Model the fold of this input.
Amino acid sequence: MTVPEERELWTPAPPHTLPEPRQPADDRAAWFTYTAAGDQIVWSAALSAMVGRAPNETGMTRQILARHVHRDDHAKALGAITEAWTSQNTVLITVRLMRADGGWFDVDCTLEPMAGPDGTVRGIRGTIRDVSARERARRESARLTRRGETVQASLVEPDPATGLLTRARFADEVDRALRGAGGALLVLRVQAGETDGVRPEHNADLLHRTARLLEDQVRPEHLLGRVGPNEIAVLFARTTWRAAREQARVLIEALREQACVWGGLVRFEQDAEAGSHGLLIDAEQAWRQSREADRPLTLVAHPVPVRDRQGSYRSRVADALGTDRFTLYAQPILELQTNRVTRHELLLRVIDESDGPQSPIQVLDAAERLDAVFDIDLWVVERAMRLAAEQPGLCLQVNLSGRSVGDPRLTNEVEKLLDRYRVDPAQLTFEITETALIGNLSEARRFADRVRDLGCGLALDDFGSGYASFRYLRLFPIDLVKIDGEYVVDLVDNPQDQVLVRALVQVCQAYGIHTVAEFVQDEATLRMLRELGVDYVQGYLIGRPAPVQPGRLRRA
Done:
Protein backbone atom coordinates (compact mmCIF):
# COMPACT_ATOMS: atom_id res chain seq x y z
CA MET A 1 0.00 0.00 0.00
CA THR A 2 1.32 3.49 -0.87
CA VAL A 3 2.09 5.59 2.19
CA PRO A 4 0.45 9.05 2.04
CA GLU A 5 2.96 11.86 1.62
CA GLU A 6 1.88 13.46 4.87
CA ARG A 7 2.88 10.31 6.75
CA GLU A 8 6.23 10.07 4.95
CA LEU A 9 7.12 13.61 5.99
CA TRP A 10 5.84 13.27 9.52
CA THR A 11 8.39 13.53 12.32
CA PRO A 12 7.81 12.99 16.05
CA ALA A 13 6.95 16.05 18.07
CA PRO A 14 9.68 17.36 20.38
CA PRO A 15 9.57 15.69 23.80
CA HIS A 16 8.83 18.96 25.57
CA THR A 17 5.35 19.09 23.96
CA LEU A 18 4.24 15.92 25.79
CA PRO A 19 2.48 16.19 29.18
CA GLU A 20 4.89 16.28 32.07
CA PRO A 21 4.71 13.17 34.32
CA ARG A 22 2.84 14.04 37.52
CA GLN A 23 5.06 13.79 40.56
CA PRO A 24 3.65 12.27 43.77
CA ALA A 25 2.41 15.02 46.07
CA ASP A 26 2.49 15.25 49.81
CA ASP A 27 -0.94 13.83 50.70
CA ARG A 28 -1.18 15.83 53.91
CA ALA A 29 -0.52 19.11 52.13
CA ALA A 30 -3.18 18.69 49.38
CA TRP A 31 -6.23 20.59 50.60
CA PHE A 32 -8.72 23.32 49.82
CA THR A 33 -11.09 25.46 51.89
CA TYR A 34 -14.27 27.18 50.87
CA THR A 35 -15.84 29.94 52.96
CA ALA A 36 -19.36 31.08 52.21
CA ALA A 37 -18.67 34.62 53.36
CA GLY A 38 -17.26 36.34 50.34
CA ASP A 39 -17.44 33.14 48.30
CA GLN A 40 -13.75 32.57 48.98
CA ILE A 41 -11.73 29.49 48.09
CA VAL A 42 -8.13 28.70 48.82
CA TRP A 43 -6.12 25.59 47.93
CA SER A 44 -2.64 24.38 48.68
CA ALA A 45 0.38 24.34 46.40
CA ALA A 46 0.31 20.54 46.53
CA LEU A 47 -3.24 20.47 45.10
CA SER A 48 -2.19 22.92 42.38
CA ALA A 49 0.65 20.58 41.45
CA MET A 50 -1.74 17.63 41.37
CA VAL A 51 -4.01 19.27 38.80
CA GLY A 52 -1.13 20.79 36.82
CA ARG A 53 -1.51 24.44 37.73
CA ALA A 54 1.26 26.85 38.76
CA PRO A 55 1.75 26.73 42.55
CA ASN A 56 1.84 30.54 42.87
CA GLU A 57 -1.21 31.14 40.64
CA THR A 58 -3.64 33.72 42.00
CA GLY A 59 -7.31 34.41 41.48
CA MET A 60 -8.52 30.87 42.26
CA THR A 61 -12.29 30.41 42.35
CA ARG A 62 -14.64 27.51 43.10
CA GLN A 63 -15.62 27.53 39.40
CA ILE A 64 -12.00 26.87 38.44
CA LEU A 65 -11.76 24.06 40.99
CA ALA A 66 -15.05 22.57 39.76
CA ARG A 67 -13.62 22.42 36.22
CA HIS A 68 -10.96 20.04 37.55
CA VAL A 69 -13.61 17.55 38.68
CA HIS A 70 -14.37 14.91 36.05
CA ARG A 71 -17.68 15.82 34.42
CA ASP A 72 -19.17 12.40 35.21
CA ASP A 73 -18.43 13.00 38.92
CA HIS A 74 -19.87 16.54 39.20
CA ALA A 75 -23.20 15.41 40.64
CA LYS A 76 -21.47 13.05 43.06
CA ALA A 77 -19.15 15.78 44.34
CA LEU A 78 -21.98 18.32 44.72
CA GLY A 79 -24.11 15.79 46.60
CA ALA A 80 -21.27 15.04 49.04
CA ILE A 81 -20.65 18.75 49.70
CA THR A 82 -24.37 19.31 50.32
CA GLU A 83 -24.49 16.33 52.70
CA ALA A 84 -21.46 17.55 54.70
CA TRP A 85 -22.90 21.07 54.89
CA THR A 86 -26.43 20.09 55.97
CA SER A 87 -25.59 17.15 58.26
CA GLN A 88 -22.52 18.84 59.78
CA ASN A 89 -20.73 15.48 59.50
CA THR A 90 -17.51 14.53 57.76
CA VAL A 91 -18.10 12.89 54.37
CA LEU A 92 -15.61 10.78 52.37
CA ILE A 93 -15.96 10.40 48.59
CA THR A 94 -13.79 9.10 45.76
CA VAL A 95 -13.80 11.17 42.58
CA ARG A 96 -11.69 11.74 39.49
CA LEU A 97 -9.80 15.00 39.07
CA MET A 98 -8.74 16.39 35.70
CA ARG A 99 -5.27 17.74 35.02
CA ALA A 100 -4.67 20.77 32.85
CA ASP A 101 -3.13 18.48 30.20
CA GLY A 102 -6.38 16.47 29.88
CA GLY A 103 -5.32 13.48 31.95
CA TRP A 104 -7.15 12.41 35.06
CA PHE A 105 -6.48 10.59 38.34
CA ASP A 106 -8.42 9.22 41.33
CA VAL A 107 -8.54 10.84 44.77
CA ASP A 108 -10.16 10.24 48.12
CA CYS A 109 -11.62 13.55 49.32
CA THR A 110 -12.50 14.05 52.97
CA LEU A 111 -15.05 16.90 53.34
CA GLU A 112 -15.25 18.49 56.80
CA PRO A 113 -17.76 21.21 57.71
CA MET A 114 -16.22 24.37 59.23
CA ALA A 115 -18.49 25.85 61.91
CA GLY A 116 -18.49 29.40 63.24
CA PRO A 117 -18.68 30.43 66.91
CA ASP A 118 -22.46 30.00 66.87
CA GLY A 119 -22.23 26.44 65.52
CA THR A 120 -23.47 27.36 62.06
CA VAL A 121 -21.58 25.84 59.14
CA ARG A 122 -19.62 28.61 57.45
CA GLY A 123 -17.55 26.60 54.99
CA ILE A 124 -16.02 23.32 53.91
CA ARG A 125 -12.47 22.00 54.15
CA GLY A 126 -11.43 19.25 51.75
CA THR A 127 -8.39 17.04 52.18
CA ILE A 128 -7.19 15.26 49.02
CA ARG A 129 -5.27 11.97 48.78
CA ASP A 130 -4.19 10.39 45.48
CA VAL A 131 -5.54 6.80 45.28
CA SER A 132 -5.00 6.14 41.55
CA ALA A 133 -3.17 2.85 42.10
CA ARG A 134 -5.95 1.48 44.30
CA GLU A 135 -8.74 2.54 41.96
CA ARG A 136 -6.92 1.29 38.86
CA ALA A 137 -6.62 -2.14 40.51
CA ARG A 138 -10.31 -2.06 41.49
CA ARG A 139 -11.41 -1.18 37.97
CA GLU A 140 -9.24 -3.90 36.48
CA SER A 141 -10.71 -6.45 38.86
CA ALA A 142 -14.23 -5.32 37.94
CA ARG A 143 -13.36 -5.47 34.24
CA LEU A 144 -12.05 -9.02 34.53
CA THR A 145 -15.19 -10.02 36.42
CA ARG A 146 -17.41 -8.59 33.67
CA ARG A 147 -15.35 -10.38 31.01
CA GLY A 148 -15.73 -13.64 32.91
CA GLU A 149 -19.49 -13.16 33.08
CA THR A 150 -19.96 -12.17 29.44
CA VAL A 151 -17.58 -14.47 27.55
CA GLN A 152 -19.10 -17.81 26.61
CA ALA A 153 -17.45 -20.48 28.72
CA SER A 154 -17.14 -23.02 25.93
CA LEU A 155 -17.53 -23.35 22.17
CA VAL A 156 -19.26 -26.69 22.73
CA GLU A 157 -22.91 -26.11 21.84
CA PRO A 158 -25.08 -29.08 22.80
CA ASP A 159 -28.06 -29.95 20.65
CA PRO A 160 -31.14 -29.20 22.81
CA ALA A 161 -33.00 -32.38 21.82
CA THR A 162 -30.19 -34.87 22.44
CA GLY A 163 -27.49 -33.11 24.46
CA LEU A 164 -24.95 -34.16 21.81
CA LEU A 165 -22.66 -31.90 19.79
CA THR A 166 -24.31 -29.85 17.05
CA ARG A 167 -23.38 -30.56 13.43
CA ALA A 168 -21.05 -27.54 13.27
CA ARG A 169 -19.16 -28.44 16.44
CA PHE A 170 -19.01 -32.11 15.47
CA ALA A 171 -17.54 -31.14 12.09
CA ASP A 172 -14.84 -29.17 13.93
CA GLU A 173 -13.91 -32.30 15.86
CA VAL A 174 -13.77 -34.36 12.66
CA ASP A 175 -11.37 -31.83 11.13
CA ARG A 176 -9.19 -32.02 14.22
CA ALA A 177 -9.18 -35.82 14.02
CA LEU A 178 -8.12 -35.61 10.36
CA ARG A 179 -5.02 -33.69 11.40
CA GLY A 180 -4.14 -36.27 14.05
CA ALA A 181 -4.51 -39.78 12.63
CA GLY A 182 -6.76 -42.06 10.63
CA GLY A 183 -10.15 -43.32 11.72
CA ALA A 184 -13.73 -43.66 10.58
CA LEU A 185 -17.00 -41.73 10.62
CA LEU A 186 -20.36 -43.41 11.15
CA VAL A 187 -23.69 -41.69 10.43
CA LEU A 188 -26.82 -43.43 11.70
CA ARG A 189 -30.30 -42.69 10.41
CA VAL A 190 -32.82 -43.46 13.15
CA GLN A 191 -36.50 -43.71 12.33
CA ALA A 192 -39.54 -44.77 14.33
CA GLY A 193 -41.25 -47.98 13.37
CA GLU A 194 -44.58 -47.98 11.55
CA THR A 195 -46.49 -48.60 14.77
CA ASP A 196 -44.87 -45.67 16.57
CA GLY A 197 -46.32 -42.96 14.31
CA VAL A 198 -44.44 -39.86 13.16
CA ARG A 199 -45.64 -37.29 15.66
CA PRO A 200 -42.89 -34.82 16.67
CA GLU A 201 -43.01 -35.82 20.34
CA HIS A 202 -42.45 -39.47 19.40
CA ASN A 203 -39.48 -38.52 17.22
CA ALA A 204 -37.91 -36.31 19.91
CA ASP A 205 -38.24 -39.09 22.46
CA LEU A 206 -36.70 -41.58 20.03
CA LEU A 207 -33.69 -39.33 19.39
CA HIS A 208 -33.20 -38.76 23.11
CA ARG A 209 -33.31 -42.50 23.89
CA THR A 210 -30.98 -43.25 20.98
CA ALA A 211 -28.44 -40.68 22.19
CA ARG A 212 -28.45 -42.14 25.71
CA LEU A 213 -28.06 -45.70 24.41
CA LEU A 214 -25.14 -44.70 22.19
CA GLU A 215 -23.45 -42.90 25.08
CA ASP A 216 -23.59 -46.15 27.06
CA GLN A 217 -22.23 -48.20 24.14
CA VAL A 218 -19.37 -46.13 22.70
CA ARG A 219 -15.95 -45.76 24.26
CA PRO A 220 -15.09 -42.51 26.12
CA GLU A 221 -12.70 -41.39 23.38
CA HIS A 222 -15.36 -41.63 20.67
CA LEU A 223 -17.48 -38.54 20.01
CA LEU A 224 -21.19 -38.30 19.28
CA GLY A 225 -23.05 -35.55 17.43
CA ARG A 226 -26.47 -34.85 16.00
CA VAL A 227 -25.80 -34.06 12.34
CA GLY A 228 -29.31 -34.08 10.86
CA PRO A 229 -33.01 -34.20 11.77
CA ASN A 230 -32.83 -37.95 12.40
CA GLU A 231 -29.09 -38.50 12.10
CA ILE A 232 -26.56 -39.18 14.84
CA ALA A 233 -22.87 -39.49 13.98
CA VAL A 234 -20.06 -41.33 15.77
CA LEU A 235 -16.42 -40.33 15.30
CA PHE A 236 -13.99 -43.22 15.64
CA ALA A 237 -10.71 -41.29 15.82
CA ARG A 238 -7.41 -43.19 15.91
CA THR A 239 -9.27 -46.42 15.18
CA THR A 240 -8.42 -49.11 12.65
CA TRP A 241 -10.85 -49.81 9.83
CA ARG A 242 -11.47 -53.32 11.14
CA ALA A 243 -12.25 -52.11 14.69
CA ALA A 244 -14.53 -49.35 13.35
CA ARG A 245 -16.53 -51.85 11.27
CA GLU A 246 -17.02 -54.14 14.27
CA GLN A 247 -18.10 -51.29 16.56
CA ALA A 248 -20.50 -49.89 13.93
CA ARG A 249 -22.22 -53.28 13.59
CA VAL A 250 -22.51 -53.65 17.37
CA LEU A 251 -24.11 -50.19 17.69
CA ILE A 252 -26.60 -50.79 14.86
CA GLU A 253 -27.59 -54.16 16.30
CA ALA A 254 -28.24 -52.56 19.71
CA LEU A 255 -30.30 -49.74 18.19
CA ARG A 256 -32.39 -52.01 15.95
CA GLU A 257 -34.08 -53.42 19.04
CA GLN A 258 -35.98 -50.13 19.45
CA ALA A 259 -36.12 -48.46 16.01
CA CYS A 260 -35.38 -48.69 12.31
CA VAL A 261 -31.69 -47.88 11.80
CA TRP A 262 -29.46 -47.56 8.73
CA GLY A 263 -25.79 -46.75 8.84
CA GLY A 264 -23.04 -45.40 6.61
CA LEU A 265 -19.41 -45.85 7.66
CA VAL A 266 -16.58 -43.94 5.90
CA ARG A 267 -12.88 -44.49 6.49
CA PHE A 268 -10.47 -41.56 6.50
CA GLU A 269 -6.70 -41.20 6.71
CA GLN A 270 -4.57 -38.50 8.27
CA ASP A 271 -4.57 -35.27 6.22
CA ALA A 272 -7.00 -36.78 3.73
CA GLU A 273 -8.24 -34.64 0.83
CA ALA A 274 -11.84 -34.82 2.02
CA GLY A 275 -12.67 -32.56 4.95
CA SER A 276 -15.31 -32.98 7.63
CA HIS A 277 -18.21 -31.86 5.43
CA GLY A 278 -17.16 -34.14 2.59
CA LEU A 279 -16.94 -37.13 4.96
CA LEU A 280 -20.37 -36.32 6.45
CA ILE A 281 -21.90 -36.15 2.98
CA ASP A 282 -20.32 -39.48 2.03
CA ALA A 283 -21.58 -41.14 5.22
CA GLU A 284 -25.07 -39.71 4.70
CA GLN A 285 -25.11 -41.01 1.14
CA ALA A 286 -24.00 -44.42 2.45
CA TRP A 287 -26.90 -44.77 4.90
CA ARG A 288 -29.30 -43.92 2.07
CA GLN A 289 -27.78 -46.78 0.10
CA SER A 290 -28.35 -49.01 3.13
CA ARG A 291 -32.01 -48.09 3.22
CA GLU A 292 -32.48 -48.59 -0.52
CA ALA A 293 -30.78 -52.00 -0.37
CA ASP A 294 -32.54 -52.94 2.90
CA ARG A 295 -29.29 -53.67 4.71
CA PRO A 296 -28.12 -52.29 8.07
CA LEU A 297 -24.74 -50.85 7.05
CA THR A 298 -22.92 -49.61 3.95
CA LEU A 299 -19.13 -49.34 4.05
CA VAL A 300 -17.09 -46.74 2.19
CA ALA A 301 -13.45 -47.78 2.42
CA HIS A 302 -12.24 -44.62 0.66
CA PRO A 303 -13.79 -41.13 0.58
CA VAL A 304 -15.60 -40.29 -2.65
CA PRO A 305 -13.61 -38.10 -5.11
CA VAL A 306 -14.62 -34.46 -4.94
CA ARG A 307 -15.98 -34.33 -8.51
CA ASP A 308 -18.09 -37.46 -7.99
CA ARG A 309 -19.45 -36.15 -4.70
CA GLN A 310 -20.39 -32.85 -6.32
CA GLY A 311 -22.18 -34.57 -9.20
CA SER A 312 -24.00 -36.92 -6.86
CA TYR A 313 -25.22 -34.09 -4.68
CA ARG A 314 -26.38 -32.03 -7.65
CA SER A 315 -28.41 -35.05 -8.74
CA ARG A 316 -29.97 -35.24 -5.27
CA VAL A 317 -30.88 -31.53 -5.38
CA ALA A 318 -32.40 -31.91 -8.84
CA ASP A 319 -34.38 -34.94 -7.67
CA ALA A 320 -35.64 -33.06 -4.59
CA LEU A 321 -36.71 -30.11 -6.73
CA GLY A 322 -38.42 -32.39 -9.23
CA THR A 323 -40.33 -34.37 -6.61
CA ASP A 324 -41.51 -31.40 -4.53
CA ARG A 325 -39.33 -32.26 -1.54
CA PHE A 326 -38.85 -28.54 -0.90
CA THR A 327 -41.61 -26.32 0.42
CA LEU A 328 -41.99 -22.74 1.65
CA TYR A 329 -43.08 -21.41 5.03
CA ALA A 330 -43.69 -17.75 5.85
CA GLN A 331 -43.15 -15.81 9.09
CA PRO A 332 -44.80 -12.40 9.64
CA ILE A 333 -42.76 -9.27 10.42
CA LEU A 334 -44.37 -6.47 12.46
CA GLU A 335 -43.66 -2.80 11.79
CA LEU A 336 -43.47 -1.10 15.20
CA GLN A 337 -44.52 2.34 13.98
CA THR A 338 -47.89 1.16 12.67
CA ASN A 339 -48.25 -2.07 14.71
CA ARG A 340 -49.13 -3.87 11.49
CA VAL A 341 -47.66 -6.88 9.73
CA THR A 342 -46.25 -5.30 6.60
CA ARG A 343 -43.96 -8.08 5.30
CA HIS A 344 -43.19 -11.80 5.55
CA GLU A 345 -39.95 -13.73 5.46
CA LEU A 346 -40.02 -16.81 3.25
CA LEU A 347 -38.36 -19.84 4.85
CA LEU A 348 -37.30 -22.97 3.00
CA ARG A 349 -38.21 -26.37 4.45
CA VAL A 350 -37.15 -29.86 3.33
CA ILE A 351 -39.82 -32.59 3.36
CA ASP A 352 -38.48 -35.58 5.27
CA GLU A 353 -40.26 -38.80 4.36
CA SER A 354 -40.80 -39.76 7.99
CA ASP A 355 -40.98 -36.48 9.89
CA GLY A 356 -42.49 -33.88 7.56
CA PRO A 357 -40.96 -30.39 7.00
CA GLN A 358 -37.48 -29.94 8.48
CA SER A 359 -34.94 -27.12 8.66
CA PRO A 360 -32.84 -26.98 5.45
CA ILE A 361 -29.60 -26.05 7.25
CA GLN A 362 -27.98 -29.42 6.65
CA VAL A 363 -28.98 -29.53 2.97
CA LEU A 364 -28.05 -25.90 2.26
CA ASP A 365 -24.70 -26.20 4.01
CA ALA A 366 -23.72 -29.20 1.89
CA ALA A 367 -25.18 -27.70 -1.31
CA GLU A 368 -23.31 -24.43 -0.82
CA ARG A 369 -19.98 -26.17 -0.20
CA LEU A 370 -20.46 -28.39 -3.26
CA ASP A 371 -21.57 -25.50 -5.48
CA ALA A 372 -25.03 -27.02 -5.90
CA VAL A 373 -27.12 -24.35 -4.17
CA PHE A 374 -27.94 -22.07 -7.13
CA ASP A 375 -30.88 -24.18 -8.32
CA ILE A 376 -32.37 -24.20 -4.80
CA ASP A 377 -32.15 -20.42 -4.51
CA LEU A 378 -33.63 -19.97 -7.97
CA TRP A 379 -36.53 -22.26 -7.01
CA VAL A 380 -37.23 -20.06 -3.96
CA VAL A 381 -36.97 -16.82 -5.95
CA GLU A 382 -39.40 -18.04 -8.60
CA ARG A 383 -42.01 -19.08 -6.03
CA ALA A 384 -41.59 -15.75 -4.26
CA MET A 385 -42.37 -14.04 -7.58
CA ARG A 386 -45.51 -16.15 -7.99
CA LEU A 387 -46.70 -15.21 -4.48
CA ALA A 388 -46.00 -11.52 -5.06
CA ALA A 389 -47.91 -11.64 -8.36
CA GLU A 390 -50.90 -13.34 -6.72
CA GLN A 391 -51.03 -10.77 -3.88
CA PRO A 392 -50.14 -7.25 -5.07
CA GLY A 393 -48.97 -5.16 -2.12
CA LEU A 394 -47.60 -8.17 -0.22
CA CYS A 395 -43.93 -7.61 0.73
CA LEU A 396 -41.70 -10.69 0.89
CA GLN A 397 -38.14 -11.22 2.10
CA VAL A 398 -36.18 -13.90 0.25
CA ASN A 399 -33.01 -15.52 1.65
CA LEU A 400 -30.11 -16.10 -0.73
CA SER A 401 -26.93 -18.08 -0.19
CA GLY A 402 -23.54 -16.41 -0.45
CA ARG A 403 -22.58 -18.46 -3.51
CA SER A 404 -25.73 -17.50 -5.40
CA VAL A 405 -25.31 -13.81 -4.63
CA GLY A 406 -21.84 -14.03 -6.16
CA ASP A 407 -23.07 -16.02 -9.19
CA PRO A 408 -23.37 -13.86 -12.35
CA ARG A 409 -26.40 -15.88 -13.47
CA LEU A 410 -28.58 -14.70 -10.59
CA THR A 411 -28.96 -11.08 -11.73
CA ASN A 412 -30.22 -12.10 -15.17
CA GLU A 413 -32.62 -14.68 -13.73
CA VAL A 414 -34.16 -12.15 -11.33
CA GLU A 415 -34.72 -9.69 -14.18
CA LYS A 416 -36.37 -12.39 -16.32
CA LEU A 417 -38.67 -13.51 -13.49
CA LEU A 418 -39.74 -9.95 -12.65
CA ASP A 419 -40.69 -9.47 -16.29
CA ARG A 420 -42.42 -12.86 -16.62
CA TYR A 421 -44.62 -12.49 -13.54
CA ARG A 422 -45.03 -8.69 -13.85
CA VAL A 423 -44.21 -8.22 -10.17
CA ASP A 424 -43.78 -4.83 -8.51
CA PRO A 425 -40.07 -4.99 -7.50
CA ALA A 426 -40.80 -3.06 -4.31
CA GLN A 427 -42.59 -6.19 -3.01
CA LEU A 428 -39.29 -8.11 -2.83
CA THR A 429 -36.35 -7.77 -0.46
CA PHE A 430 -33.38 -10.11 -0.94
CA GLU A 431 -31.57 -11.16 2.23
CA ILE A 432 -27.82 -11.82 2.34
CA THR A 433 -26.65 -13.73 5.41
CA GLU A 434 -23.69 -12.04 7.12
CA THR A 435 -22.10 -15.41 7.88
CA ALA A 436 -22.35 -16.56 4.25
CA LEU A 437 -19.15 -17.09 2.29
CA ILE A 438 -19.76 -14.87 -0.73
CA GLY A 439 -17.88 -16.43 -3.60
CA ASN A 440 -17.35 -13.31 -5.73
CA LEU A 441 -17.70 -9.92 -4.07
CA SER A 442 -17.62 -8.05 -7.39
CA GLU A 443 -20.53 -10.09 -8.76
CA ALA A 444 -22.35 -9.77 -5.45
CA ARG A 445 -22.03 -5.99 -5.61
CA ARG A 446 -23.24 -6.05 -9.22
CA PHE A 447 -26.29 -8.07 -8.15
CA ALA A 448 -26.96 -5.72 -5.22
CA ASP A 449 -26.72 -2.60 -7.36
CA ARG A 450 -28.91 -4.09 -10.10
CA VAL A 451 -31.75 -5.25 -7.82
CA ARG A 452 -31.71 -1.86 -6.13
CA ASP A 453 -31.92 -0.18 -9.55
CA LEU A 454 -34.88 -2.41 -10.40
CA GLY A 455 -36.64 -1.30 -7.20
CA CYS A 456 -36.09 -4.34 -4.94
CA GLY A 457 -34.80 -4.06 -1.39
CA LEU A 458 -31.62 -5.54 0.09
CA ALA A 459 -31.29 -6.88 3.65
CA LEU A 460 -28.40 -8.20 5.75
CA ASP A 461 -29.43 -11.19 7.87
CA ASP A 462 -27.96 -12.34 11.22
CA PHE A 463 -26.17 -9.03 11.71
CA GLY A 464 -23.62 -9.18 14.52
CA SER A 465 -23.03 -12.94 14.32
CA GLY A 466 -20.53 -13.31 11.48
CA TYR A 467 -17.07 -12.41 10.33
CA ALA A 468 -18.20 -9.57 8.08
CA SER A 469 -19.10 -7.26 10.98
CA PHE A 470 -19.81 -3.75 9.66
CA ARG A 471 -17.94 -4.27 6.40
CA TYR A 472 -21.02 -5.30 4.44
CA LEU A 473 -22.78 -2.06 5.37
CA ARG A 474 -20.20 -0.24 3.27
CA LEU A 475 -19.82 -2.86 0.55
CA PHE A 476 -23.51 -3.22 -0.27
CA PRO A 477 -26.44 -0.76 -0.53
CA ILE A 478 -28.25 -2.37 2.41
CA ASP A 479 -31.78 -1.13 3.20
CA LEU A 480 -32.52 -3.41 6.16
CA VAL A 481 -30.45 -5.12 8.84
CA LYS A 482 -31.76 -8.09 10.81
CA ILE A 483 -30.19 -8.19 14.27
CA ASP A 484 -29.17 -11.74 15.14
CA GLY A 485 -31.72 -13.30 17.50
CA GLU A 486 -28.92 -14.49 19.78
CA TYR A 487 -28.73 -10.93 21.13
CA VAL A 488 -32.52 -10.55 21.41
CA VAL A 489 -33.77 -13.73 23.06
CA ASP A 490 -32.43 -12.74 26.54
CA LEU A 491 -32.43 -8.99 25.97
CA VAL A 492 -34.48 -7.99 29.02
CA ASP A 493 -32.24 -9.81 31.50
CA ASN A 494 -28.88 -9.24 29.81
CA PRO A 495 -27.41 -5.71 30.11
CA GLN A 496 -24.57 -6.57 27.74
CA ASP A 497 -27.02 -7.56 24.99
CA GLN A 498 -28.90 -4.31 25.58
CA VAL A 499 -25.71 -2.31 25.03
CA LEU A 500 -24.91 -4.24 21.86
CA VAL A 501 -28.41 -3.93 20.36
CA ARG A 502 -28.54 -0.22 21.18
CA ALA A 503 -25.18 0.25 19.45
CA LEU A 504 -26.26 -1.72 16.37
CA VAL A 505 -29.44 0.34 16.08
CA GLN A 506 -27.51 3.60 16.39
CA VAL A 507 -25.01 2.52 13.73
CA CYS A 508 -27.81 1.55 11.35
CA GLN A 509 -29.63 4.82 11.96
CA ALA A 510 -26.43 6.71 11.16
CA TYR A 511 -26.13 4.74 7.89
CA GLY A 512 -29.81 5.26 7.00
CA ILE A 513 -30.69 1.57 7.44
CA HIS A 514 -33.85 0.07 8.97
CA THR A 515 -33.53 -2.63 11.66
CA VAL A 516 -35.40 -5.86 12.36
CA ALA A 517 -35.05 -7.81 15.62
CA GLU A 518 -35.47 -11.59 15.41
CA PHE A 519 -36.54 -14.12 18.11
CA VAL A 520 -39.03 -11.78 19.84
CA GLN A 521 -40.97 -14.06 22.16
CA ASP A 522 -42.54 -11.87 24.88
CA GLU A 523 -44.06 -8.45 25.50
CA ALA A 524 -41.20 -7.24 27.74
CA THR A 525 -38.70 -7.77 24.93
CA LEU A 526 -41.02 -6.04 22.46
CA ARG A 527 -41.30 -2.97 24.73
CA MET A 528 -37.55 -2.74 25.15
CA LEU A 529 -36.97 -2.98 21.40
CA ARG A 530 -39.41 -0.10 20.91
CA GLU A 531 -37.41 1.97 23.39
CA LEU A 532 -34.16 1.11 21.62
CA GLY A 533 -35.54 2.39 18.30
CA VAL A 534 -35.86 -0.88 16.36
CA ASP A 535 -38.12 -0.54 13.29
CA TYR A 536 -39.45 -4.10 12.82
CA VAL A 537 -39.71 -7.29 14.89
CA GLN A 538 -40.35 -10.95 14.15
CA GLY A 539 -40.58 -14.02 16.36
CA TYR A 540 -43.07 -16.35 17.99
CA LEU A 541 -44.81 -13.42 19.72
CA ILE A 542 -45.67 -11.98 16.30
CA GLY A 543 -46.28 -15.29 14.56
CA ARG A 544 -44.70 -18.68 13.99
CA PRO A 545 -43.59 -19.85 10.55
CA ALA A 546 -46.52 -21.45 8.75
CA PRO A 547 -46.94 -23.19 5.37
CA VAL A 548 -47.42 -20.74 2.53
CA GLN A 549 -50.97 -20.75 1.23
CA PRO A 550 -51.37 -18.52 -1.84
CA GLY A 551 -53.70 -15.61 -1.25
CA ARG A 552 -53.84 -16.13 2.51
CA LEU A 553 -50.72 -14.47 3.95
CA ARG A 554 -51.71 -12.08 6.72
CA ARG A 555 -51.00 -8.42 5.99
CA ALA A 556 -52.53 -6.71 9.01
Summary: Residues 1-27 have pLDDT under 50 and may be disordered.
